[in-house]
Amino acid sequence: MSETRDSRTSPVQSVDRAVxxxxxxxxxxxxxxxxxxQRLEVHKSTAFRLVTALESRGLVEQVGDRGKxxxxxxxxxxAGAVADRLDVTRRARPACEExxxxxxxxxNVALADGDSALNVDQVRGSSSVVxxxxxxxxxxxxxxxxxxxxxxxxxxxxxxxxxxxxxxFTAATTTRRRDLEEALxxxxxxxxxxxxxxxxxxxxxxAAPVRGPDGEVVAAISVSGPSxxxxxxxxxxVTAAVVAAAxxxxxxxxxxx
Length: 257
What we know:
- Keywords: DNA-binding, Transcription, Transcription regulation.
- It holds the Pfam family IclR_C.
- The structure is a single chain.
- This protein is of the alpha+beta class.
- The chain has a six-stranded antiparallel β-sheet with strand order 6-5-4-9-8-7.
- The protein starts with a helix and ends in a 5-residue tail after the last helix.
């Protein structure tokens, strides 16, 4: 690659390369500009510019005067933001495990992530012989019980979830904004949300909010299962169990009603 062509890389490519630098240093522990340039397949001058930019933000730092670089302390700050999310998962886990035993169904913990709900933990119940692994998947806010809970109790999430077109996934998906807004208002009063085949045909779910120490809703716990098992008649029983589990998880996070 010529230096002239290299200097004309797009902002997106530059960002990708900067992230790769961080990944390389995470793998190696420390590395020099020559080594980084080789891994990125770019000129040393390009690698140096990337490292210098990252160093100015504290994301990498020099190791003494040996010409080596390692990840900087700013990475710890960014990781801390993720750790806060992981703390929700860790503290909610006992409640989720108990809920999975009580209901026999799949239990998930979801967080708001832009206009989606991000599933960060899952516990399979005894009835879930074959269950979909939702961990790491983003699901639409308007078509899931967890997403509706997050929207109902978090105004910024609600704004994000109702900003664009509401995509239809099944015949039961709520696609009219007015209908969704009314449903969210009701969820905020009831303290839980239920969906029947709105994301997938044959899949029902119930969710309730998990609160942090300040009372802000930080996550949603849900129980999902096939509609032939998680029937309308059973939803009331399951909803009570989900709400109780969410309250247990909230208490573990320091919230006191």
